[in-house]
Design a protein that fits this description.
By secondary structure, the chain is mainly β. The protein has 3 domains: about 40-125, Sandwich (Immunoglobulin-like); about 140-210, Immunoglobulin-like; about 215-525, Pectate Lyase C-like (3 Solenoid). The protein is about 5% helix and about 40% strand. The chain contains 4 helices and 40 strands. The strands form 7 sheets. Strands 16, 18, 20, 23, 25, 26, 28, 29, 32, 33, 35, 36, 38 and 40 form a 14-stranded parallel sheet that branches. Strands 14, 15, 17, 19, 24, 27, 30, 31, 34, 37 and 39 form an 11-stranded parallel sheet that branches. Strands 4-3-6-7 form a 4-stranded antiparallel sheet, with no helix packed on it. β9 and β10 (about 165-170) form a beta hairpin. The model is unreliable at about 1-25 (pLDDT under 50).
Length: about 525
C-alpha cells in the first residue's frame, strides 16, 4: 500500500512540473536600469586643521561626478556660498572655509548617461576657531612684551588680550606687515591673545611672560650654583641665565623653600646636578632647566653619572610640594624621584611639560618610594623615553603601618611613554600602599612588553582614551602574569602613532586619529 501511495504522489508531481513547464519563462535579468542616480550615502564631515572640512561618502558606481553645495546655516541652504564638483576618485574632498562658522553641505550624484541626478544627502558641521598666527619664537616673548606675527595683509581688526579681555585695535601698518608688539604685560603671567576679524577669531596664542628680574636673584654659568643655593633665603627665586653650569657639578642640598628657574624656556641652562631634599623643604619649584646627570667626578676626574635627579634624604620629615615644569632631564643611573632609603612623607610631586630620557633604574625604580608615603604624584603633558627600561615605572610600597589612614594618588595624563618598563615582569604602576587611586588618561604607551600591575592592593587603574602600540600587556589577555590588571575602559586604541623618528627622540605624530583625539604629550602634535 505504501509503494502505491508513493507512485501516485510521484505521478501527480511530475504532471504539475510538466504543466508548469508549458508556461513562458521570463528571461534572466543581466542588468538593472534606473532612471536616476543613487543618492550618496554615509555622508560624513570631519574638521581638519580647524577650518578645513573633509567630506566623504560611499561611491555607488553610477555617478560620473558629484556636486557639493555649502551654505552658512544649519540645513536650510538659504544661500549657497560655495559649489564644488568632485570626481569619485577625488574622495575624500577637503574644502577650506572660515573659522567659527556653522555650515551645511549637501551632495548629489550626476551622470552623463541622460538620467536624472540623485536626491541630495545633507550634513551640518561647525569649523573650529581659526589660527593663522606663526609659532612664537623664544625671542618674541619678554617680561612685559610679546611680538606676534601672521601672514601680511590678512583681513583682521583687533586683538583681545587676557587677562581682562582688553581690546586693542590693529593698525593698518601692523596689518600690512603682519607683525605687532603688545606692551604693558606683567612678568611671569600666563596670557592668551586672540586676533579677531569682527566677531570671528583668526588667531590665538597662549604664552607665559618671562621673569621680571626686579625681585629675583640672577645667576650666571660661571657661578657656583651650590654656593648660591646655600646662601639663598627661604622663598628666594633664582633666575638662571643660559649656559653650561660647570663651576659646580654633583649633589646640591635643598633644605628650604626655593625656586630655581631658567630665564628663557627656549634656551635652558644646563645643570649637572642631583637635588638632595632635606628637612625644611615645603615649596620647591624647578622650572625651564636642563638637568644632565653626566658629570666629571672630582675624585676620579672621569666622566660619571649621578644616581637620582631628585632624592629625599631626611628620615621622619614631613615634606611639602615639589613642582618640576618645562624641564629636560636625562642620563641618570637610578631614579627620577627617590625616597627609597628613608621613612618620610611627601605631600605632592608634579612633573609637567617636561621630557625625561635615559633614567636607567640600575638597582632602583623610576619613581621609588618604599618606606615613605607619597600622597600625590602627577605626571602631565610629558614624555618619558627609555626610562626604567627593565624596572618598575612607579613603585609605592606599603608604608601604611607608619602612615595609617592615608591615601596615595597617582595620575598620568597626556603623556607619551616610549620603551618604559620594557620587561614582561615589570609594571607601570607597582603600587602597594594600602589605599590608593590610579588614573591613566589620554596617554600614548609604545614599544613595551610591561603591564599595569598585578598587586592585590593596587586599585583598578581608571583609564580613558589611551593608546597602546606594540604594548599588549595593558589590555585584557595581553599579559599572562597572575592577577594582572588591564585597561577595562573600552575606549582605548592600538594605533601606530607614526612617530617621526623615535630613535632620535622625535615623537611627532602622523596618525590623524591620535592627533584628533589629543592622545599623548601635546608637544608632539604637528
Amino acid at each position: 500500500m505504501k509503494n502505491i501511495l508513493k507512485n501516485i504522489a510521484y505521478i501527480i508531481g511530475l504532471t504539475i512540473m510538466i504543466s508548469g513547464g508549458c508556461k513562458e519563462i521570463d528571461p534572466v535579468i543581466e542588468e538593472l536600469s534606473f532612471d536616476r542616480v543613487f543618492t550618496p550615502v554615509n555622508l560624513t564631515a570631519m574638521i581638519r586643521n580647524k577650518t578645513t572640512v573633509e567630506l566623504n561618502w560611499n561611491v555607488r558606481g553610477d555617478a560620473d561626478h558629484y556636486v557639493v553645495e555649502l551654505s552658512e546655516d544649519s540645513l536650510k541652504f538659504t544661500s549657497i556660498i560655495k559649489t564644488v564638483e568632485v570626481a569619485p576618485d577625488q574622495l575624500p574632498v577637503s574644502i577650506l572655509l572660515d573659522g567659527q562658522t556653522r555650515y551645511s553641505a549637501r551632495v548629489k550624484g550626476v551622470s552623463n548617461n541622460n538620467i536624472q541626478e540623485s536626491k541630495m544627502m545633507m550634513v551640518t558641521f561647525k569649523t573650529d576657531a581659526e589660527n593663522i598666527f606663526f609659532p612664537l619664537d623664544g625671542a618674541d616673548i619678554g617680561a612685559t612684551t610679546v611680538t606676534i606675527k601672521w601672514p601680511a595683509g590678512s583681513d583682521v581688526t583687533n586683538f583681545v588680550i587676557s587677562e581682562g579681555n582688553v581690546v586693542r585695535n590693529i593698525t593698518p601698518q601692523e596689518i600690512a606687515a603682519g607683525v605687532a608688539t603688545i606692551t604693558g604685560l606683567a612678568g611671569e603671567t600666563n596670557y592668551t591673545v586672540r586676533m579677531m576679524k569682527g566677531t570671528k577669531q583668526r588667531g590665538s596664542v597662549t604664552f607665559k611672560t618671562l621673569i621680571d628680574l626686579g625681585g629675583a636673584t640672577a645667576v650666571y654659568p660661571e657661578n657656583d650654583l651650590s654656593a648660591v643655593i646655600s646662601a639663598a633665603k627661604s622663598g628666594d627665586v633664582l633666575v638662571l641665565f643660559p649656559g653650561d653650569y660647570l663651576a659646580y657639578a654633583g649633589k646640591i642640598t635643598l633644605n628650604k623653600s626655593i625656586s630655581v628657574k631658567g630665564l628663557y624656556p627656549h634656551n635652558k641652562p644646563v645643570l649637572h646636578i642631583q637635588f638632595v631634599l632635606e628637612e625644611g623643604v615645603q615649596e620647591v619649584e624647578i622650572r625651564d632647566v636642563e638637568m644632565n646627570g653626566i658629570y666629571i667626578d672630582p675624585l676620579t676626574t672621569l666622566e660619571a653619572k649621578l644616581d637620582h635627579a631628585f632624592q629625599y634624604m631626611t628620615a621622619g620629615a614631613a615634606y611639602g610640594n615639589l613642582k618640576v615644569t618645562g624641564c629636560n632631564i636625562h642620563d641618570y643611573s637610578k631614579s627620577l624621584f627617590s625616597a627609597s632609603s628613608i621613612a618620610s612623607s611627601v605631600t605632592s610631586i608634579v612633573l609637567d611639560n617636561s621630557i625625561v630620557t635615559n633614567v636607567l633604574t640600575d638597582a632602583a625604580d623610576f619613581i621609588d618610594f618604599r618606606t615613605s608615603f607619597l600622597e600625590s604624584i602627577s605626571l602631565k603633558n610629558s614624555t618619558f623615553n627609555n626610562c626604567a627600561p627593565a624596572r618598575d615605572f612607579i613603585r609605592l610600597d606599603d608604608a601604611s603601618a607608619t602612615y595609617p589612614g592615608k591615601v596615595s594618588k597617582v595620575e598620568i595624563d597626556h603623556c607619551t611613554l616610549y620603551k618604559v618598563s620594557n620587561n614582561a615582569s615589570r609594571r607601570l604602576l607597582y603600587v602597594r600602599f594600602k589605599t590608593n587611586t590610579l588614573s591613566v588618561t589620554n596617554t600614548l604607551i609604545a614599544e613595551t612588553i610591561g603591564y599595569y600591575t598585578n598587586q592585590s592592593s593596587s586599585a583598578q587603574p581608571e583609564c580613558s582614551m589611551n593608546n597602546y602600540f606594540n604594548s599588549p600587556g595593558f589590555i585584557t589577555g595581553g599579559s599572562t602574569i597572575s592577577g594582572a590588571k588591564f585597561d577595562n575602559s573600552g575606549n582605548y586604541t592600538l594605533l601606530d602613532p607614526g612617530f617621526a623618528n623615535a630613535a632620535n627622540s622625535d615623537f611627532t605624530l602622523s596618525n590623524q586619529t591620535l592627533i584628533d583625539n589629543n592622545v599623548g604629550d601635546p608637544r608632539w602634535k604637528p
